[in-house]
Design a protein that fits this description.
Two copies of one chain form a homodimer. A four-stranded antiparallel sheet of chain A has the order 1-2-4-3, sandwiched between helices. Chain A is globular and about 50 Å long. Chain A is built from five helices and five strands; from the N terminus they run ααβαβαβαββ. Strand 1 of chain A pairs parallel with strand 5 of chain B, so a sheet runs across the interface.
């Protein structure tokens, strides 16, 4: 798939078929995630790949927006490891770049995905941490549900000239 | 270009030729940026596109890492507008997804780019704000230098099984 087709037709997919996500696709997605840029190349990320149905059901309740985790065959919880930070305070940006690569790699394999934010909501962090046994030095940033889409990809228009400034604000 | 070629061969490019970046390419890059996902679809981003040589020279001094802004024909300063946030605290993730789309769209047009973090470093924020006249309610997140590369794209290996966890941490 052309990179611009992926960029322009990616959308949040919240309904999935029961079809399995292959390990090859999962590996491609994780490879793409780990090739994201990071401050001082610190790569402060961890990926908890959840396929177990009971754990996914529990993840569906860690935030008001993660309900689809119960149905998605693969859920990747992206976490930031503060002990790996070289440039303090940059881990959210690094891990967000990795997540965007996950979404685009999924699109490239015709898989649907949706990014549900956990950090900085403390209650969501605590619940996610408890379900997956994540240590205190690691912060769960987001829950990414992935599967074969039961919704259509489509290109929306969001180009807004009002957000573009020339040379100065 | 295939989306996986873009994902796997993107790297930080810090040296550029003097060749102009076309307005068509800039528009494609900004379109990709604005198609990033955001919390509650809040789209809290602004993009200051800097081509003026004097302003780029000044941006090259706003952080220890932005020196290439003086040579890059196009610099995009990505900002978060707190007044647009619907999901409080999520703007960094939203804008980081937009930045990753910028880098990948640039790669798709065989342009090089590099992401230099500004926020949360207060001194860098203040200097960037001063150069571009950015209002107080808007936070400059990063300086993205873009141009035709004077370095080669290449695929590095960063896949690290130790960062992957199965079902539980």
């Amino acid at each position: 798939m052309d990179v611009f087709d992926a960029l322009f037709t990616r959308r949040s997919i919240r309904k999935f078929t029961t079809q399995f996500v292959s390990k090859d696709d999962e590996n491609l997605i994780l490879k793409a995630a780990m090739l994201a840029p990071s401050a001082c190349n610190e790569q402060p990320w961890h990926f908890v790949c959840v396929r177990d149905a009971e754990l996914r059901e529990r993840l569906s309740h860690v935030s008001p927006y993660t309900h689809m985790a119960a149905e998605a065959p693969l859920v990747i919880v992206v976490c930031g490891d503060l002990s790996l930070e070289k440039a303090k305070g940059m881990w959210v940006q690094d891990c967000s770049a990795a997540i965007e690569n996950i979404l685009l790699a999924a699109r490239g394999k015709n898989l649907g995905s949706v990014w549900c934010g956990i950090h900085p909501e403390k209650e969501r962090e605590a619940k996610t941490r408890e379900v997956l046994g994540i240590p205190d030095s690691v912060i769960p940033l987001a829950v990414i549900s992935i599967g074969h889409p039961a919704q259509h990809f489509s290109e929306v228009s969001r180009f807004d000239k009002a957000r573009i400034h020339r040379d100065k604000w």
